[in-house]
Amino acid sequence: MKVAIIGAGVAGLATAYQLDKYKIPYVVFERRYQSGDPTPHVAANLEIINRPIKDIVSYFQAKHGLPLVPHRKITKILMLSPKNKAVVHGNYLGYFWLRGHLKNSLENQMLSQIKGEVRFKSPVDPEDLKHQFSHVVVASGTPQIARSYGIFHKLFDGWVIGSNVSGNFDPEELIMWIDTDYAKNGYAYLTPFNSKNASLCLVVKDISENQLDFYWKVLWQKEKLPYKIIETFTVNHIVGYLTTNQLGNIYFTGGAGGLIEPFLGFGIFYAIISGLLAAKAIKENISFNELLEPIRQAVRQSDTLRAGINKLNNDMLDYVVQLIAFGPVNFLFYHTPVDVVKILSKILKKAGLTR
Question: Is the pTM of this model over 0.90?
């Protein structure tokens, strides 16, 4: 038995980590010259999204022996709509993670913990590998390969434009903006590296890349952002689901497997857990789809919530933020173990606010 892993991102390295524990040999093929995105940035995961799991760092350490070190805790969330704002405070609301080629990035942390062979600058085709290896794990981060097999169904097709910016920031504060004038049904967010530098990103659905600059300028002008741009990057952001995550001896994980939660587009937790489960399915010769079903169900619930949000105009978004700012709702959402995403998705589904 020998496994080919396509992609040295979080999902692929999680598979490699677990295969090491099983003593199953593998080769990781990465088309780029390094693990992680070319432009360093700060990603986030929110505790409210991953319930009933409260702390993903403790979860991966206790359940899988995988030690991960986040950049910082999130202790404050500021949500801004055109006319309202909501502030959430807490000792732990989630984590910030360094991404890209930075020394302590999530990718480099995981890369340092694997023992097998990693071949950089090695683009490969799963059709070629499936006859050379017992199993092929597709962890390329995008649905391009799944799409070529006709098993990917698109839910969200948009663009992300982001900048690393300088200014004055609270290192533990996540800032989010929702405004259809510049984000349509997407959002903008700011995640700090430290008190002087941060990542600022805008996610916009159903536009072409050459339209990004217009919406980017509207964001800066309307919000009167006081930051200075250091460098800018753009990424095509496609979210969807797969009809199956296993085709014979080919397994699709992380973003390549449609395992990005559609509400806010977070993917760290699902990428890691799907990579670990791919290794388990290979080791035990069991159905990868069955192992993934709880995650696939959580993604569907998140998509129902996203579908409901997509129908809101700015007046409605103002009302949502005002509701979140209301003390009892704020407490219920962020300071109890209630699975808010699951409950809201059920309410929206019964109300017919689905795709």
Answer: yes
